[in-house]
Amino acid sequence: MGNSTISGLVGWRSPSNIALVKYWGKYGSQLPRNPSISFTLSQAFTETIIQYESIDYAQDQIQIDFYFEGKPNEAFKLRIESFLNDNIESFPFLRHLHLSVESRNSFPHSSGIASSASSMSALCLCIASLSRLQSDKDTGSEDFLRRASSISRLASGSACRSVYPEVAAWGHTTFIEHSHDEYAVPITGLHENYRDYHDDILIISVDEKSVSSTAGHKLMDTNPFADQRYAQAKANMGDMYAALLSGDTHELGRLMESEALTLHALMMCSDPSFILMKANTLQVIEKIRQYRQDTGQALYFTLDAGPNVHLLYPHSISSDVSLFVNSELRPLCQDQKIIHDRIGQGPVQIKSFSL
Ligand code: DP6
């Protein structure tokens, strides 16, 4: 970067995403055992701003300043430093920069919703921006997002899908052109039935997860059903992709529920075994299925590796669903808490915090 000091700021707001076909099981440098596909969300997001300044020597170990919601946060700082140091060959220019990173979430940290997809994609988009500053040529937005996705994958697998609007797929599948294990790709041609699609996140419990995703992925290495699961996910990618293009919201919901319950079943039959649902998770699921039977409406759920329930449905039925959710499901949530999210348009570059 020459002898004179160069300094500046890069910033990104990046959303969370909800997987429809689940990534569960990985190997090597964060490569997925099976492909996955997700809706990008809009309301649950992280904003990250990095102030950088060049230094005139090469750091052996990257050290950063890190502030979460305005306060220094040692745990997050260490996690980011070890990610940067473990992958330093991917962004060697960081040896010549001092970084001061500040990050904020649109949702409370202890709200029970996974934040690694939004936080890691926001951070990695900033790193991709820094990388672009180092090179003379503007590589264009497609290349940029692909690089940001690839860096995000190294930080947290699911984060690599958050860099695209609406729907993204990660992992090679014969059904989706250009799909790749090292980065996610955007899905185009999403049917209009999914425009403004809702995701109400029912907070059944804000407690820390009983098993981290990293430990959960690891359990797949010895799970007796792992091979069947990977084959099932590969087949589901084709059917899910078809449902996204055709607008068949019932088919999407059927596959999505099966994916969620399979994920939980895999954790139940792992060694050691984990039951990640709570009693109220099951009650909510039963009520959703009853509602569907009574109304025929396309109201379906999915779950991540925890007790909270994502309720997905088309905008056209949202007033009916809202009545049902408020009377039947809200009382089963911790402190009656629900986060109302929607399918979203992906990350945006920022110069200052909006939060
Ligand atoms: C159940 O992306 O959190 O949400 O790569 O170890 O950071 P790491 O795991 P992570 O796993 C997410 C798993 C999931 C399903 C999904 O998002 O596909």
Can you lay out the helices and strands and say which pair or pack?
Layout (H helix, E strand, L loop, with lengths): L6 E15 L4 E2 L3 E2 L3 E19 L9 E5 L2 E2 L1 H13 L10 E9 L10 H19 L5 H16 L11 E4 L13 E3 L11 E5 L10 H7 L6 H21 L2 H20 L10 H17 L4 E4 L5 E5 L4 H12 L8 E5 L5 E2 L6
Parallel strand pairs: 5-7
Antiparallel strand pairs: 1-4, 1-14, 2-3, 4-7, 4-8, 5-6, 8-9, 10-12, 10-13, 11-12
Helix pairs in contact: 2-3, 5-6
Bound molecules: ligand DP6.
Q: How much helicity do the residues have? A: 25-40%
* CATH fold descriptor of the largest domain: Ribosomal Protein S5, domain 2
Distance N terminus to C terminus?
Answer: 33 Å
Order of helices and strands: EEEEEEHEHHEEEHHHHEEHEE
Which short descriptors sum up this protein?
8 helices, binds ligand DP6, 2 domains, 14 strands, alpha+beta, Alpha-Beta Plaits, 8-stranded mixed beta sheet
Brief overview:
The chain is of the alpha+beta class and 355 residues long. The protein has 2 domains: 7-192, Ribosomal Protein S5, domain 2 (2-Layer Sandwich), CATH 3.30.230; 194-342, 2-Layer Sandwich (Alpha-Beta Plaits), CATH 3.30.70.890.
